[in-house]
Design brief:
The complex is a heterodimer of chains A (about 260) and B (about 350).
Chain A: H1 2-31, H2 48-55, H3 57-90, H4 96-104, H5 111-125, H6 131-153, H7 157-167, H8 172-183, H9 185-200, H10 204-209, H11 216-224, H12 230-258
Helix pairs in contact in A: 1-12, 2-12, 3-6, 3-9, 3-11, 5-6, 6-9, 7-8, 9-12, 11-12
Chain B: E1 6-15, E2 18-28, E3 33-37, H1 44-52, E4 59-64, E5 67-68, E6 79-82, H2 94-104, H3 109-122, H4 138-150, E7 156-160, H5 168-185, E8 188-193, H6 196-202, E9 205-210, E10 213-218, H7 220-225, H8 230-235, E11 240-250, E12 253-258, E13 261-266, E14 275-280, E15 286-287, E16 294-306, E17 310-317, E18 324-330, E19 340-345, E20 351-354
Parallel strand pairs in B: 3-8, 3-9, 6-7, 7-8
Antiparallel strand pairs in B: 1-2, 1-4, 4-5, 9-10, 11-12, 11-14, 12-13, 14-20, 15-19, 16-17, 16-19, 17-18
Helix pairs in contact in B: 2-3, 2-4, 3-4
Classes of the chains: A mainly alpha (about 260), B alpha+beta (about 350).
Chain lengths: ~260, ~350
């Protein structure tokens, strides 16, 4: 009876993980297909479709664009998020709780709404559709996240550390740069990598706000309109690989933080 | 008279509705070890924060070396603080922690390292230079915090309950070291504590605080033997407090009527009918005989606590059930709870407090 339960439990676990990972496994598997259609039987392994992706200038350009947008928008989001967290944690502001709520509110709004809102706003202000516009969109979605992560780590126990630095003669900007930022480095890096992950495979906002130069997810969507082929699998696998690396970096910085 | 190093003039401070300090004035002499002693909520930490520049007083002024520092930020003050939680920079080595203040003053790296090593040697931690704070024990972190604050040669070193987080044995040991270090560097120390033993052991100048006011200040010997108020008589060591009224004032002798009988004490300037409180230290209460000149009636022993070198005896007066005597009996005394003993004391050991 007990054995049966254990076997049943094991099967259940396999089913769950299969449900989650099977699509990805299939995606990656058929990216190695040797023939022209990503359908069984598997004919690979072959790297010809990866070669096709890397020689496709549109795709490689989009890949570089995506990396640029992800890293720069994350840098801006993390900087602004850090500064607002510092402001909220260290100063008494009128309506602090309400303002903190407002700053994290975009986390609950759908990307489509944010993208449409930005589209209308940029149209009105006269900002053309571009990678910069998409980057701004990514700052909007990632700033609340960065704020929440950094603010949660900015406890009262650091107040005295900052005071000590001030007491020993440090001007405010040196307190921030030499004490607050290094002490919070794990949270800051974690926020940065998570922002990059989200920006890296964000589609809706990039789709709405870019035109000629665009990011990889939008380019993949363009590719998909002409039907499935192993090339889409290959580029999808690449996107997935980069996401995995970013998530691992995020986890590692958080884990390292918990050790001491 | 030379100008005091620190001159706190009529400082009051309000946290919202709460008045944390009420018109406090205090002078601190160069090279002195001042202890601010009081229970939590007495305003002692607020006063220290005002000295350090972390809190700007609602009223009053703070002069350090004759300069008005009331609104000067901590970074520009000639004070440094040893925080209760040490507040070491966790991402820096011990050497860089200690050198931080010098770095902020633009001292070059080599000099900085040399001075940091010197300061660490002063606190007995020369070998910890390259370690990280989390590799040190509580007592060692305490020393690093002390070295870090001393290395910039402040005019006044402020210590906020520096021994509060240490265990008793380590606390007594650090206490002796603090005193030795203070004597060696000659810097004025201002130290906040609620531990009266710590206060008596360390202070040149003991400031007893309660409810936002200074109750009493002076040498610990004076504050202990002649406390100025009822609060300092019970907070700095224990006392039996005897309430009474002046029955008669003749020349320089006062006859005071208490519920334990009349007591005559030297003193004047109090009119007949004035209410007074008499404090008697436990070691001055004589149990079991009338050896002391002043008889205080019989008392029933309610509790005897063995404390190693003595027995702490609590007894209730037979004449006034609301009066509890606190006495110290020799460790070998055969006194038991339930015994009835005669209580007396010497008139010169009675401390008269204005009530």
């Amino acid at each position: 009876m007990r054995l049966a339960l254990r076997i049943l439990g094991g099967l259940y676990a396999i089913a769950i993980y299969g449900f989650i990972f099977l699509p990805v496994v299939v995606l990656v598997l058929f990216s190695l297909q040797a023939t022209s259609f990503p359908i069984p039987p598997f004919t690979g392994p072959s790297l010809r479709w990866y070669e096709a992706v890397l020689t496709d200038t549109r795709l490689t350009a989009a890949l570089v664009n995506s990396l640029l947008v992800a890293s720069l928008s994350s840098l801006v989001a993390v900087t602004l998020g850090f500064l607002s967290a510092w402001g909220f944690a260290r100063f008494v502001l009128p309506g602090s709780a309400l303002l903190r709520g407002l700053i994290t509110l975009p986390l609950t709004v759908s990307y489509l709404i944010i993208g449409m809102g930005l589209l209308v706003l940029f149209n009105w202000v006269g900002v053309p559709k571009s990678l910069i516009a998409a980057g701004i969109g990514h700052v909007v979605i990632n700033l609340p996240l960065c704020f929440a992560i950094i603010y949660s780590q900015m406890g009262d126990h650091q107040v005295n550390i900052e005071r000590a630095a001030r007491d020993l003669g440090a001007p405010e900007w040196k307190v921030l740069l030499l004490i607050t930022v290094p002490v919070l480095a794990p949270a800051i890096f974690a926020a940065f990598f998570l922002s990059m992950t989200f920006s890296w495979d964000e589609f809706v906002i990039s789709f709405l706000l870019t035109r000629f130069d665009t990011t990889l997810p939008v380019e993949i969507w363009n590719l998909l309109r002409s039907g499935l082929n192993p090339k889409t699998n290959a580029v999808g696998s690449l996107v997935f690989a980069v996401s995995i690396v970013l998530v691992l970096l995020f986890e590692l910085t958080l884990l390292r933080r918990k050790k001491p | 008279m030379s100008a005091p190093l620190v001159d706190i003039r009529a400082v009051s401070h309000r946290f919202g509705e709460h008045l944390a300090l009420k018109d406090v004035s205090l002078r601190i002499e160069p090279g002195s070890y001042t202890i601010l002693l009081g229970p939590s909520g007495s305003g002692k930490t607020t006063l220290l924060s005002i000295l350090g520049g972390f809190v700007r007083p609602s009223e009053g002024k703070v002069f350090i070396r004759g300069e008005d520092c009331t609104t000067m930020p901590p970074a520009r003050r000639p004070t440094t603080t040893v925080f209760q939680d040490y507040a070491l920079f966790p991402h820096m080595s011990v050497g860089n922690n200690v050198g931080f203040g010098l770095r902020m003053r633009g001292v070059d790296g080599t000099t900085r390292a040399a001075k940091a090593r010197e300061a660490l040697a002063l606190v007995g931690l020369a070998s910890a230079f390259d370690k990280k704070p989390h590799q040190l024990s509580g007592g060692q972190r305490q020393r690093v915090a002390l070295a870090r604050a001393l290395v910039v040669e402040p005019a006044v070193l402020l210590l906020d309950e520096p021994l509060g987080a240490l265990d008793l044995k380590l606390r007594r040991q650090m206490q002796d070291e603090l005193k030795a270090i203070q004597k060696r560097v000659g810097t004025a120390f201002v130290h906040v504590t609620h531990d009266q033993e710590e206060a008596m052991a360390l202070a040149d100048h003991c400031v007893v605080m309660n409810d936002g006011r200074i109750e009493d200040e002076g040498t610990p010997e004076r504050v202990y033997s002649r406390p100025a108020t009822r609060f300092s008589a019970t907070f700095m060591g224990e006392s039996t407090i005897l309430a009474g009224t002046v029955a008669e004032a003749t020349g320089d002798t006062l006859l005071i009527r208490t519920r334990c009988g009349p007591v005559s004490l030297p003193g004047s300037s109090l009119p007949a009918g004035a209410a007074v409180a008499l404090a008697i230290r436990p070691e001055h209460i004589v149990l079991g005989s009338d050896a002391g000149g002043v008889r205080l009636g019989d008392a029933r022993v309610s509790d005897v606590v063995f404390q190693g070198s003595f027995k702490r005896v609590l007894a209730t007066s037979a004449l006034d059930p609301s009066l509890g005597f606190i006495a110290k009996a020799p460790a070998a005394a055969g006194i038991q709870p339930g015994d009835t003993v005669a209580v007396s004391c010497d008139s010169q050991d009675i401390i008269m407090l204005a009530d």
